Amino acid sequence: MEIFQVNYSDGKTSRLYPAEVEFTPRALVISYLNEGVRQEVSWDIDRINTNKFGFSFEHKITYGDFPAETIEVDEDFFNQFQEQYPHVRLTNKSIHYIKKRTWRTIVFSFLGIVAFALLLYFWVVPAIADRAAQSIPISYEQQMGEKIYKQNLLEFDIDSARTKLVNEYFQTLHVKSRYPVQITVVHCDEVNAFAIPGGHIVVFSGLLNQMRNHEELAGVLSHEYAHVYYRHSLRAMARGLANYAVISFVIGDVSGITSMMVANADNIRSLQYSRELESQADDFGFKLMQQKGVNPAGMIWLFQNLTEANKEKKEKKILKVSVPEFMSTHPYTKHRIEAMKELLKKDRHVYKEDERQQVIWGLIKKENAIDK
Ligand SMILES: [Zn+2]
Fold first, then answer.
1. Sorting pLDDT into bands at 50, 70 and 90, what band is 51?
2. What percent helix, strand, coil does the chain show, rounded to 5?
3. For domain 3-91, which architecture applies?
C-alpha cells in the first residue's frame, strides 16, 4: 500500500502537521507527530466531506463537522483516492479550478465594467460633452441663446427702465466682446442673475435691490459676462445633456444638441457651475473691473452684502432663502472671498469715480427705491 505525504490540520488550530496517509479499505489512516508524540487519526471513508473538496485555492479534503479536520493533498493523492474508493466521488478539482477561475473572472470583469462605466460617466462623457459644446459655432450659440432667452423670459415681466440703465452701465465698461452682451432686468424678488449662451445676461430686480453701490453691479455683470465669455453656461448645459452632446459630437451634427438645449431652456436658471468655473469667472471678473477702472473690491462687497442679507433672512425665519448663481458654490464662497481678497492685496490701481457711472447708478437706485 502506498503511503502519501500530506499536511494535516485538526481544525482546532491553524497548525499544519506534516503527516502520512495510508489508504485502508474503510478508512484513511493519518499519522503525524505532535510535540514528538505520534498521533493517529482514522477517517471513515463514508464520512469524508466530498462536496467541500477543492473549495479553496489549495486542494483540501475535509472530514467531520465544524471544526472540520483537513488534509492538503496533491494530484497523485487525488487520483489514487478515486481509484481506491470509486464510490466516493470527490468533486474533480480541475472542474473546481475552472469554476474558481470563472468566478473570479466574472467578479473581475464585472468590477472592470463598473470601473469603465464610472470612468466613462464621470470623465469621458463630460469631456466629450465639453468638446461638443466647444465645437458649436458662435452663430449657432447665439441663435440657440436667443431661443433660450425668449423661453425663459415668458415667465417674467421685464423691468424696462432698469434694463436700459443697466445696459448703459455695462457700456461704460467698454467691453470688447465677440458676443453682443445684452442685459435684461426682470421683476422678481429672487436675488439672482444668470448668463445665457450667446450673450444674454438676466438680472433679477431682487438682486439690484440688495446692492449698495455700483461696484457691486459691476461685479455681478463682469462675473456673469465671464460665464458667457468662457462659454460656461453652454458647456454646463451640454454636460447636463451629455448623452445628446456625445451623440451629436460623434455624428458631427450640432443641431441635435442645440435643439435639446433649447428644449431644456429652463435649466439655465438653476445651472450650477463647478468650483473651478466659478473661480475662473471671479478671476476674470476681477481683472475686467481692474482694467475698466472700477474698484474690484465691489465683488467682495457684493458677496459680503448678500451673505449678510441671507443671514438676516434666516434669522427672521424667512424660508425662501435664495442663493444667487454666483454664490451657488457653497461651501466654497468663503474661499472665493479669500481668493479675491488676495487679489485685492496685490492691486496697485487707484480708482477714480466715473461720473457717468455715478449718474446711472443714481437712477438705478431711484428705481430700486420704487421697487422696494
Ligand atoms: Zn457664476
1. low
2. 55, 15, 30
3. Roll (2.30)
